[in-house]
Design goal:
mainly alpha; flat; 16 helices; Tetracycline Repressor, domain 2; single chain
Length: 348
């Protein structure tokens, strides 16, 4: 249930936010992607001259490349699984290139809308718009342009359904998550995270023109993965979010509530990963089960430490979540590429 956290947020800001801690590398965007923190590699500041190289880097940084990496990691396995083998290289290239542009468009539009709070939050102050390396007008034009290109490119080179789904993903991320949910409810990343699940069904659709049930199962993996991943990060940067007026769950709820929710969503994530076993071979089974056990053990360990009042390290779970999703995605892809007979029934 979506709950409004603004009242609680005001209370937290008045009592807790005094001197936000200096963030460390590894922050993440609350939609299913890793590494939200944008670390500009140039030493340029807004007070110095802006070179062409600075501008090129700035436009690239607007797209949040490190988030795109994870989205592509979840797209490829879906394509291999849809083919139950190695899909056409042309289709793979077209899907990944179009998906990269689409994700970049959505991320850049997010930067445009959130430019005000990016200047406040310490972990986002190096983003191009916060540094005024790029104007909001130019960033908006850039974001819309690559978004339109991505939709048309996928529709022409893969399937029309993939193009439509891509447009839906961009619009949902920008209109629903960024503009409607992010600053209004503590459940922002739960529902906003749906956009981060879309690459799976887009990848499947690009290969088959339809959406098989294994794609929906992996969609569920990412949906349930997003809250533990993001809330673990938000526990570490609670004051940062509060200072910007973003009611992430760790900002408006107790730590016990947060870690309890992390455990519940972690079980949902692992359950969805196991739902893929009947449509996969023994390789996926041999990797997904122990990976799930390790993640659940870490989630329960975090919960136990918070309940006992011991020193908790949520960033350990955050980094583990990135590793978990990568391992499960690669296992699903390799399992499908080998083309071995499924242990259960075949969806093809």
């Amino acid at each position: 249930m979506v709950t409004d956290g603004r009242a609680a947020l005001q209370d937290v800001r008045s009592h807790e936010v005094r001197s936000p801690r200096q963030p460390r590398p590894g922050a993440a965007d609350p939609v299913g992607g890793p590494a939200d923190e944008q670390r500009h590699t140039s030493s340029h500041t807004s007070a110095g001259p802006v070179t062409i190289a600075d501008r090129v880097i700035a436009y690239v940084m607007l797209t949040k490349p490190r988030i795109i990496e994870l989205l592509l990691i979840t797209t490829v396995p879906a394509m291999f699984a849809a083919q139950r083998g190695v899909p056409s290289l042309a289709v793979m290239f077209a899907t990944l290139f179009g998906g990269m542009l689409a994700a970049g468009s959505a991320n850049a539009l997010n930067c445009v809308y959130d430019a005000d709070i990016d200047e406040i939050m310490r972990r986002t102050r190096n983003r191009p718009l916060a540094r005024h390396t790029v104007s909001r007008r130019n960033a908006l034009i850039f974001a819309i342009a690559i978004g339109v290109v991505s939709v048309l490119f996928l529709a022409v080179t893969t399937t029309w359904q993939a193009g439509v789904l891509t447009a839906v993903a961009i619009l949902f991320y920008v209109l629903v998550y960024t503009m409607l949910l992010k600053r209004r409810t503590s459940q922002n990343i739960v529902w906003g995270g749906l956009a981060g699940c879309m690459p799976v069904i887009i990848g499947w659709s690009a290969v088959t023109g339809g959406i098989g049930w294994p794609a929906w199962a992996f969609f569920g993996v990412i949906f349930f993965w997003t809250p533990p991943h993001t809330w673990a990060l938000a526990m570490r940067y609670k004051e940062d979010y509060a200072a910007a007026g973003v009611p992430m769950l760790p900002v408006v709820a107790s730590e016990r509530t947060v870690v309890r929710q992390i455990v519940l969503y972690s079980w949902g994530m692992v359950a969805c990963s196991l739902a893929l076993i009947p449509a996969s071979a023994w390789l996926y089974l041999a990797i997904a089960v122990p990976a799930g056990v390790v993640f659940l053990a870490a989630a329960h360990s975090l919960h136990l430490k918070v309940v006992r009042g011991a020193a908790a390290k949520p960033m350990t779970l955050f980094h583990l979540s990135n590793l978990y999703l990568t391992v499960v995605s690669v296992a699903w892809a390799v399992d499908a590429a080998l083309g071995w007979a499924p242990v259960g029934w075949s969806p093809w």
